[in-house]
Design goal:
The complex is a heterodimer of chains A (about 375) and B (about 290).
Chain A (H helix, E strand, L loop, with lengths): L6 E10 L2 E11 L4 E5 L6 H9 L6 E6 L2 E2 L10 E4 L11 H11 L4 H14 L15 H14 L4 E5 L7 H18 L2 E6 L2 H7 L2 E6 L2 E6 L1 H6 L4 H6 L4 E10 L3 E6 L2 E7 L8 E6 L4 E3 L6 E12 L3 E7 L5 E7 L4 H5 L3 E6 L4 E5 L7
Parallel strand pairs in A: 3-8, 3-9, 6-7, 7-8, 13-20
Antiparallel strand pairs in A: 1-2, 1-4, 4-5, 9-10, 11-12, 11-14, 12-13, 14-20, 15-19, 16-17, 16-19, 17-18
Chain B lengths: L1 H7 L1 H30 L19 H8 L1 H35 L2 H12 L6 H12 L4 H8 L13 H24 L4 H9 L4 H29 L3 H6 L7 H11 L3 H25 L4 H5 L1
Helix pairs in contact in B: 1-2, 2-13, 3-13, 4-8, 4-10, 8-10, 9-10, 10-13, 12-13
Classes of the chains: A alpha+beta (about 375), B mainly alpha (about 290).
Keywords (chain B): Cell membrane, Membrane, Transmembrane, Transmembrane helix, Transport
Family (chain B): Belongs to the binding-protein-dependent transport system permease family. CysTW subfamily.
Subcellular location (chain B): Cell membrane
Chain lengths: ~375, ~290
Amino acid sequence: MSIGESVHLENVTMRFGDFTAVDDVSLEIEAGEFFSFLGPSGCGKTTILRMISGFNEPSAGRVLIGGRDMRGSGPNRRPTALIFQNLALFPLMPVWENVAFGLEMRGMARSARRRRAEELLDLVALGNAGDKRVADLSGGQRQRVAIARALAVEPKVMLLDEPLSALDLKLRQHMRAELRAIQKRTGVTFIYITHDQGEALTMSDRIAVMSRGRLEQVARPDAVYNEPATPFAASFVGEANIFQGRVVGLSAEEVEIETDLGRMRARNGGDLRQGDRAMLFVRPERSSIALGGDGGRIEAELVEMEFEGSFINLRLRAPNRQPIMVQMANDGGLGEMARMASVPVSFAARAAIALPEGELAHQ
Amino acid sequence: MQALVARYGGPITALMIFTSLVWVLGLLLLPQLTMIDYSFRPALPLAEIGGPKDVYTLENYTFLFGNAGFLTIFAKTIWSSILVTIAAFAICYPLAYYLARGTSIGRARLLIVALIIPYWINEILRTFAWMLILARGGLINMALMELGVIDQPIVFLGQTPTIVLGMVYAYVLFMVFPIYNVLDTLDKAQVEAARDLGAPWWCIHWRIALPHAKPGIAVGCISTFMLAAGSYAVPTILGGPQSRWFTEVIYSQFFEGMNWNRGAAFAFLLLLVCVTFIVIMMRLFRVSLGEVAK
């Protein structure tokens, strides 16, 4: 089957009247990569997808696929296939005609495209559904028909616009694995749009976190999670305890920040200098109930305990009433803690990252 | 029935059923049955009605098939009505598609109002307007003579194409709205998906939009055909002796020939053709009566 092609965005901007949906985005997506755009609704990620697929031409900048400038080429002339959010299957055609539609448009004979459609339906484990009506399929089956229909035209780049959002949680998790497997098997470049960080983190080779039409960070999933580049990325992806303050000390790799809750130390994530306003982020699972920890130490009041089985979520309150979350492994010593009036929360400086003050994601 | 009684109470339910029955039986079914009954009896002087000569016969029907003039008019009426329907569809499908898909909602509303306004004027007056345009000394002839394109006025009135034109104009709305209504429900993503899969514009219409619009097209074609075949005002105003419409023949049987029996037979034949047309359209477009009624 076909091998993917690269997608380059060069200073791409998209304006609708006064509104700038995508603002000067430059990006290189490699051939065969599973790349996700992650951001809240209205951040411009769907607009980017529509510019790559050819439904919109950028107001400024260029879109290149496989090194070729795509300006002026409509969606039917690009080596891309789009899977729509609502799938947009053709309800008046049987399943196999849906899958074969792109081949029909390319002038393939009826018997040949029927055969090809059956092969593709086998690939997505819908081998005997060719003659069924779309309306008779379940949500997950329709999903697979949409994938088969897109694969039929042997695209170099597959574009997916939140295609899993209509499915229930269990099916969604199953389809994630399946999408990833199909991408690996076919070698097609996948560009995936989602507001669901779980989808982005589990499936992607790389993620672009977007906010207000701009790229906040482009990195591997673990890097986005562990080394967020901006306060938005840090707060949109995963949970974080956030402490605000001013830089009072600098060392080679670390900064010291004066906060409402005392001095704290963290890795310097963004060229912070003496006196800068800063935000310190530390993940709940990297905070602990302990006296040690060279990053920071807070005497917090326990508000609630959520027992999740293998781990426990603790919701606490700092003296300045700021909520704090700690996730700890279940070591069997739970009863002890419930009787404590105040709990010492601490974290290591290595586990925390300090960034210049900026906008946070609303969640 | 029980639900109706529970909801509105006994007396109101009884009233509703009574009025519906009066309407359907008294105003629709009985007059039609009487007409059918008439059509199978000979036209007799008043004194002989109910007498020994008043027997059931097919002669009113066979008369039409024996009369080449009437038969031609009958066939031409059907054929011209089909032409009207085809022409109206050819105009209305692109228009309806543009209204539903090609423009902003505000713009579409404005255009729809502009389409409806002429229909506030009576059909007869609207047809008269065409007469003014097409008459010997009318707008078109005057303009063409001024420009020196022609030196003798063209005779438009009394020609069958003119009647077809007048009817397309008169009934175009009955084709636009059913098609517009179904196209309006076509998901934009369907069209985009087809484009994304490589479909050229005509193919999107052929494989996606037209199949989706089928019920609306069937309704539009049925309405337009029925109105055209049953039209009286347009052929009377724009037509002449050469372009008689079958409705005019029926009228003259009733009120000029005073032969209600033959008129009823002719009218019944026209109705039969119209019903056949509906059935054919529904078969052709594979739509059910329920879908058409929507």
